Amino acid sequence: MQKNHFTIRQMSRQEVDIAIDWAAMEGWNPGLHDADSFYAADPTGFLIGLLGDKPVATLSAVKYGDSFGFLGFYIVKPGYRSKGYGIQMWDSALAGLPGRTIGLDSVVAEQDNYKKYGFTVAYGNMRYQGRGGGHFPAEAGIVPLSDLPFEDVCNYDRPFFFDDRRLFLRRWIAQPQGTALGILQKGKLTGYGVLRICRSGYKIGPLFADTPEVAEQLLMALKANVPESAPVFLDPPAVNPAAVALAERHHMVVVFETVRMYREKIPGLPLERVFGVTTFELG
């Protein structure tokens, strides 16, 4: 009997790699170095479900500050689905986020299931795919984020997220094989973007900018760091027409859609300045 007992506990850093690998098998195309940044955001926020000592389920419930949590990596291993393990993981994750606004990105087909638990649709995200290469706009005032005080980056990022995420951000903008760029205008940061290498190609996220023009310059600069033969992915909110137009102007095509949902409160984020969300896994 003990051999088949299902238990849930926090993941170690090494076990986060299991969730990343399973996400890759689901076709989510995670970044090669995502695990370190994700774990840094909240080392207590990753759950693993074990049947005996065999991993069969994962779910992240990452806490940001005192008021926000984000759910991701909700995966039950094929062969162990429809046995109640997923709902036990779900209940455990929600129990670990009491009193917080909770966000998640759902595939479109699953949104009604999340509505049963009090989640409300805020907006849709479109995953666009294009190609690397192109012109680097050297005249645009583009600088590596590493050249700027980290507090300046945090202060710029803060309006775009429901609570503080500096522990995540410090790792995210400095990850190996990544590129993090900002644009300065009159000494002030007016946008930034991060490019990271993934199992397939590269993803840009976040891409935040005060104007569509700044967003386009950052997109061009980041794409210029990618081989012309490699795919590039960008996830703009569908409710930002300038972001959608930017992706399409650069010959990117929609390959996937998600729905951003929240429970308790829909944050009033400046979506008109969001040209690419950070990740579907951690918000």
Written description of the protein model:
- The protein folds into 2 domains: 101 residues, 3-Layer(aba) Sandwich (Aminopeptidase); 150 residues, Aminopeptidase.
- Helix content is 26%, strand content 34%.
- It has 8 helices and 13 strands.
- Strands 1, 2, 3, 4, 5, 6, 7, 8, 9, 10, 11, 12 and 13 form a 13-stranded mixed β-sheet that branches.
- A hairpin with a 2-residue loop joins strand 2 and strand 3.
- Helix 1 packs across helix 2 and helix 2 packs antiparallel against helix 6.
- The longest helix has 13 residues.
- It is globular.
- The relative contact order is 0.18.
Sheet-strand content, in percent, reads 25-35%
What count of structural domains?
2
Distance between the termini: 39 Å
* Low-pLDDT windows of residues: none
Largest sheet: 13 strands, mixed
User: What is the H/E string?
Assistant: EHHEEEHEHEEHHEEEHEHEE
Mean pLDDT: 96
Shape descriptor: globular
Q: Which fold name fills CATH's third level, the topology of the largest domain? A: Aminopeptidase
Number of helices: 8
Q: Mind telling me the CATH class of the largest domain?
A: Alpha Beta
